[in-house]
Amino acid sequence: MAGKQPVAIVFDTFGSVVDWRSSLIADLTAYGTTKGVSADWTALVDAWRAAYHPSMDRVRKGELPWTRLDDLHRTSLDQLVAEFGIKGLNEDDLVHINLGWHRLHAWPDSVLGLTRLKSRFIIGPLSNGNVSLLLNMAKFAGIPWDMIFGSDLFGHFKPDPETYLGVAKMLNLRPDQVMMAAAHNGDLGAARRCGLMTAFFPRPGEYGPHQKRDYEADQDWDIVATDIQDMATQLGV
Amino acid sequence: MAGKQPVAIVFDTFGSVVDWRSSLIADLTAYGTTKGVSADWTALVDAWRAAYHPSMDRVRKGELPWTRLDDLHRTSLDQLVAEFGIKGLNEDDLVHINLGWHRLHAWPDSVLGLTRLKSRFIIGPLSNGNVSLLLNMAKFAGIPWDMIFGSDLFGHFKPDPETYLGVAKMLNLRPDQVMMAAAHNGDLGAARRCGLMTAFFPRPGEYGPHQKRDYEADQDWDIVATDIQDMATQLGV
Question: What fold is seen in the domain A20-102?
Fold first, then answer.
């Protein structure tokens, strides 16, 4: 990438840095086997993720006070366990399953690419996850963040402007010194409207057979890369 | 250390992890030489640090609204440059000097000890510095924090309970699952009153010839170590 470079790069996390779907399906399937609880874990994971945006919208619309994503996940999980008629899970099991979002694996290029980027830039997640979720995930997956920008630091979920602008303010940077990196065009559009730089890389396998969008860049983002390793190469590190 | 272990360990930073006095004296002396500005930089650094607690007390007492440490430092610096009669510094120079607090070197055992501790525990600074200060310092000194607990996350300076309890809340831990580590008995006393575990190691050279206290532990802290490497050894990592 010729020209202007950012000082900090913040990453969307679920889907962009970590493969939530494959990780959760494997994690829950193994747990179900251990516990002797049978269920269509793949369908549960897909339904759980489908509840993600509607659950955050309840906070955005003021139907709920500020609620951490861990707690939104738990509410959705309880509903889905009932809907799916899954039997035999006690409270400890539900706590463990809910923390499955803390045990997500990175895509193969993520840790290598982020390690390269960290040598020159401040890097962190800017995610709808809460700090504790993102921190446990980083420890689990070996992701070398400099700082964790959880949504609880801002009391807002993306794409609310308070998140993108909150990072810049916290880092004492102008918005155009911060780059948002994501596999989701919508996230980048919101970041660009706040004045941030933008980087896109596709994750065509994020939703498995249910992927519907984000196969390619839909705007002229500052960087369009194949993955985070390629993004590091384009940024010259 | 036999028995209970923490999940997260948070560190006082100025004096405990980094050697602010030697670092700043060397940094400012070199800068003064480059710029042809003569001053008693050692005396300036000592006076600057002496202004630290009184400046935070203005916030605690409500004389000032919440103010980041970078901005308190700048107010104190401007006053001291006038008092010391230092001539020839323009605005860019003052900005650069003020960011000297972002360019502090770690004590020799700090990075090695923290790297060992990071393998088992969540580690972060719990400091009166703001996030951007602590993050730039970590990049400069190679400190491998998992998360940066700057005072601006809580809108409070230590020893206000909101800081110690705020870390536990943000990590979704009980206070007794968090250990405060510091070279300052007062900081540990405040943390213990909030229910945190405690670790002490002395930094007898922190204030150079002006050191007056904290040569040794004044309570039976959960860990009393010689430095952060020894602390890691006592925690079995």
Answer: DNA polymerase; domain 1 (1.10.150)
